[in-house]
Write a structure and sequence with these properties.
Low-confidence stretches: none
Number of strands: 16
Oligomer: single chain
Helix content: 40-55%
Number of helices: 20
Distance between the termini: 23 Å
Shape: globular
Largest sheet: 7 strands, mixed
Radius of gyration: 23 Å
């Protein structure tokens, strides 16, 4: 049984809305299936086979085979076992899948467009077999995959994985999705020397060549796919900011690493505000990795302030304008000086939130907000267990990758996961349904506010930061209304 979205006109509201309808799959002709066969038993059988695999990457490759052979069974598993399947098809396992992609590759899951295709990108785009049905495309150049760096063409699992989450999380048709990996080369020496590497064996081009390629790509996307929303994913920081600004009004697009992450963090902070006995306007936020105007920013060279040497242009907006002290690089020293109530990590530096940092945060506020958001798990700034231990159980915690629950003082504590999956399926679906010509900052902000207000009474009673991942389709259904 497939669940599809069907449009209908609501005369009371004067708008077009969507409803979910079940469509039965045609039974196999006699003799083409075993005498005793049921879809439910087959799903149980597939789940049993999945759980028999011992390592996460084995489970990933098995699910990739299931998706290729029986897409309906794959998404049934995703929907019915969301909390179990999501960490396999996306973070943290997708990071390992990217690292090993050229070794585990079997079938293409999307389009590959290389620098050598410049001048005929439109022709390549037209080769997608489901071009007429495409409505959402995730595009990566593989230059900054999660916290793993430049993986080149091995970034394809990111694009395919994100689109699987669009399908599972928002109900978008599989045939409407288009994963694209742009191969402009790689500066990763391991890729360049790997005889199995699937991408161009050349170093990344100059910025001028990069820009010319991207200009052609975006122009041709608008011509070939005028109804498609583009989500940029996992590009190098400089390109992520510059191409978002350069192309955001050329066609409907957004950058999940910038806007999706910002929205899910904002939603988390709004959610935890109800748990902390501090007025919202008295919070002080320290962001280790990037920042916002009301936030103290720390990068790899320390506290960011006007007058400090070697501050990238995109960080100057966030630089402190009234700091006149000496340069500070030690995070514990900065935490002691700033006295933040919330500490957010996007640094990909394992263990950066040291025990001293956590203890200092606990001195600043009775309920320190600790969000180590770096992916995958092994790059997290602090684990859930360690954050609870060094804060004497007072930390309010959300991470980028999943951690298990912990018992402290006889009470079970559940960590939050600041997963962009809470944002981009709803944001993308809403933009598609309203045929948005651009994805505005107001739309991103609205998605954050909607997420913050989506916790059930039971989830609030448990003091969760985010709703349970199993309910993500439910809140996306609300978005359709």
């Amino acid at each position: 049984m497939s669940i599809v979205l069907s449009p209908y006109w609501s005369p009371d509201e004067g708008i077009q809305k969507l409803k979910m309808e079940a469509r039965a799959k045609a039974p196999a002709a006699p003799g083409l299936a075993p005498p005793v066969f049921s879809v439910k038993a087959q799903l149980d059988r597939t789940l049993l086979q999945l759980r028999s695999r011992t390592s996460p990457i084995e489970k990933y490759t098995f699910l990739a085979q299931v998706k290729q052979a029986d897409v309906e069974a794959f998404y049934k598993l995703c929907l019915e076992y969301m909390s179990e399947i999501t960490p396999i098809i996306y973070t943290p396992t997708v990071g390992d899948a990217c690292l090993q992609y050229s070794k585990i590759y079997r079938n293409p899951e999307g389009l590959f467009i290389s620098l050598k295709d410049k001048g005929r990108i439109g022709n390549i785009l037209r080769n997608w077999p489901l071009a007429n049905e495409a409505r959402i495309s995730v595009v990566t150049d593989g230059s900054r995959i999660l916290g793993l760096g430049d993986l080149g063409v091995n970034g394809m699992p990111i694009a395919a994985g994100k689109l699987s989450l669009y399908i599972a999380g928002a109900g978008i048709r599989p045939s409407a999705t288009l994963p694209i990996t742009l191969d402009l080369g790689t500066n990763n020496s391991s890729n360049l020397s790997d005889p199995l590497y699937l991408g161009l064996r050349q170093r990344l081009p100059s910025d001028a060549e990069y820009d010319a390629f991207m200009d052609e790509f975006i122009t041709e996307m608008g011509r070939v796919y005028p109804k498609v929303l583009v989500q940029f994913e996992d590009s190098s920081t400089d390109h992520a900011f510059s191409y978002l600004e350069r192309f955001r009004n050329s066609l409907p697009l957004f950058n999940d690493n910038i806007q999706g992450t910002g929205a899910v963090v904002l939603a988390g902070l709004l959610s935890v505000a109800r748990l902390v006995p501090i007025p919202c306007n008295e919070h002080r936020i320290l962001l280790f990795g990037a920042g916002s105007a009301s936030i103290w920013l720390v990068d790899s060279r320390g506290l960011v302030y006007v007058g400090r040497e070697e501050v990238a242009d995109y960080k100057m907006y966030f630089a402190r304008r009234h700091y006149t002290g000496l340069p500070m690089k030690d995070l514990a020293e900065i935490v002691k000086y700033v006295k933040p109530t919330a500490l957010l990590g996007l640094s990909t530096i394992t263990g950066a939130f040291t025990p001293e940092v956590i203890r200092q945060m606990s001195q600043n506020t009775p309920c320190p907000i600790i969000f180590p958001l770096s992916n995958p798990v092994h790059l997290s700034e602090r684990t859930f267990a360690e954050a609870l231990k060094h804060s004497n159980g007072t930390a309010i915690f959300a991470s980028g990758s999943p951690f298990g629950s912990e018992f402290i003082g006889g009470v079970r504590r559940e960590p939050g996961q600041g997963n962009n999956m809470y944002i981009f399926p709803r944001l993308g679906l809403g933009a598609i349904l309203c045929r948005a010509k651009s994805v505005t900052d107001s739309m991103v902000q609205a998605s954050a506010l909607g997420l913050a207000g989506s916790l059930s009474w039971d989830e609030r009673a448990l003091e969760l930061v985010y709703l349970r991942i199993e309910r993500i389709r439910e809140i996306s259904d609300d978005n359709k209304q």
